[in-house]
């Protein structure tokens, strides 16, 4: 028998480090396929859900960024044509799609004045207090710089820009409900965390709820306690590996918002040269089946598309580097 995770799990520290609700035998099975199986429809997928493998001959992410950016532009344009407001929940990661959403909007002169933008999360302390927008790593500052500023005259009105602060986040449910009452739609744009979170809604939160229904009804959390895998992921991607720069908590939307979307647009670009950190997370998202211990597993149950770079579609194999 090969020596692997399962054969060494018992009595190891990993048993307390990884989410206790994960089925590791299932994870091993569903992450062992390749690109052909990646797009095979699963029984729990929404009839209008689709995974899209983005080919890029350079091995980069430009194709994914462009396709995802067009998808965002398309829902903005559609709501403008319907003359209805649009609630758009937005991530800071991935980010490359915003330049393309801006490009298509400017090219076709599509205004975002009817859009209400909701940042899905923000770094915080245990009470939900967040850093100012000009602080390094601030999600509010990143969104202003990447999207709202470059849109220029077409941009989202300042009164329609919502950020996940202690005072603003609790108002999200009522604001989104009011938009939907006026005939608007809720569209969630998302990435997937190493521990399969959506926004900063972590897998270990599942232990606090008596039922999936109760879990799905919670719309947000202030000062959420982040999983170690999330901290490590962000230390590598956003903080130049400096662990001590990262807050251990964040404000975040919950499944009471992200599982109630009318449409979802996902993106996964987590593979650099010899560094594929997101492959397992994407496969779990598609094939694990809806489970609060795997928050991203609910995304295929709703209409939408998830765009992924080809490397993440497998096969995911060991390689010594």
Features:
321 residues, 12 strands, Rossmann fold, three-stranded antiparallel beta sheet, globular, alpha/beta
Describe the structure.
There is one protein chain. The protein is an alpha/beta fold. It has a single domain, classed as Rossmann fold. The protein is built from twelve helices and twelve strands. The strands form three sheets. The protein has a seven-stranded parallel beta sheet, sandwiched between helices. It has a three-stranded antiparallel beta sheet with strand order 4-8-7. β2, α6 and β3 form a beta-alpha-beta unit. α5 crosses α6. The longest helix is centred in the N-terminal third of the chain and has 21 residues. 44% of the residues are buried. The model has no long low-confidence stretch (mean pLDDT 94).
List the helices and strands and how they pair.
Elements lengths: L4 H4 L5 H4 L6 H7 L4 H4 L10 E6 L7 H21 L3 E5 L6 H11 L7 E5 L1 E4 L14 H10 L12 E2 L9 H10 L3 E6 L21 H5 L3 E6 L2 H10 L11 E5 L1 H4 L4 E6 L2 E2 L2 E2 L2 H9 L16 E6 L12
Parallel strand pairs: 1-12, 2-3, 2-6, 3-5, 6-9, 9-12
Antiparallel strand pairs: 4-8, 7-8, 10-11
